[in-house]
Design brief:
single chain; 266 residues; alpha/beta; Rossmann fold; seven-stranded parallel sheet; three-stranded antiparallel sheet; globular; binds 2-phosphoglycolic acid
Length: 266
């Protein structure tokens, strides 16, 4: 795992955008794994800014896979998908701005009749696309990765999960009231996520410091799903000073990044 302590969320956004752009330049039909939440937004905004300024790559040939999706959200008043669904969120926050069409973006299918087979169908779609080249990840304050809450099997695949009270409280800010946060989600499993070729986890803010320390320096454990990154051969963790503040080996991670050979990249 490569832990990269950076100075600010803006610096993280630039580095994350560099990583994604390098993948798309090398492989125009790249498969991008997308995460929702507040943490990746500066990186998404940076990708859009560069694309719209004409200095980013074209995204016409990419395919995207969202990490997860709420189950049980009512339709929007116009009959479309709910504004807080992850399909709508990813379109609004990233893919529309990059000129990526809705047909290029996949998400787990939360339709009520579809739930029993939604996981295996999603896994088949990812496999058919050749797997994910670079996967954005956030981490929950309880250590969750995607919506794999503590206790999730480290080998889990895409399936339905029940959110913890902590996660529902954390996500209540996106809804009119805490009671509107769905109790269930479909999420890629930890085993699914581990198959992406490059994992790019971003964490910012003091509220993530304990989860980051447990994931990066704690034992590999289903009690901290984020610790599964320790099993991945190419996992990069981008941290701002607050999120990095509880790491024991922080000085070493800084030294490693400062001494990183220029040819190596992230
Ligand atoms: P956040 O969510 O980026 O909104 O903090 C991260 C997560 O829950 O995985």
């Amino acid at each position: 795992m490569e832990v990269v302590p950076l100075g600010s969320a803006a610096e993280i956004a630039a580095v994350a955008a560099d990583v994604v752009e390098a993948v798309v330049r090398r492989k125009p039909a790249a498969v991008l794994g997308l995460a929702t939440g507040s943490t990746p937004l500066p990186a998404y905004q940076e990708l859009i800014r560069r694309h719209q300024a004409g200095i980013g790559p074209g995204y016409h040939d990419v395919t995207c896979f969202n990490l997860d999706e709420y189950v049980g959200l009512p339709p929007a008043p116009d009959g479309g998908v709910h504004a807080q669904s992850y399909r709508a969120t990813i379109a609004r926050e990233l893919t529309d701005g990059l000129g990526i069409g809705p047909d290029q973006v996949n998400g787990p299918d939360p339709g009520p009749g579809a739930l029993p087979t939604a996981g295996e169908r999603y896994e088949a779609l990812i496999e058919k696309a050749g797997g994910v080249d670079v996967q954005f990840l956030g981490i929950g304050s309880d250590g969750h990765l995607a919506f794999n809450e503590p206790g999730s099997s480290l080998a889990s695949r895409t399936r339905i999960k029940t959110l913890t009270a902590q996660t529902r409280a954390d996500n209540a800010r996106f809804f009119g009231s805490p009671g509107e946060v769905p109790t269930h989600v479909l999420t890629q499993g930890l085993g699914t996520i581990l198959e992406a070729r490059h994992l790019l986890l971003i964490a910012t803010g003091e509220g993530k410091a304990a989860a980051v320390a447990a994931a990066v320096e704690g034992p590999l454990s289903a009690s901290c799903p984020g610790s599964v990154l320790q099993l991945h051969p190419h996992a990069t963790v981008l941290l701002d000073p607050a999120a990095a503040s509880r790491l024991d080996r922080l000085a070493y991670y800084r030294e490693v990044y400062a001494a990183k050979p220029a040819w190596q990249g992230l």
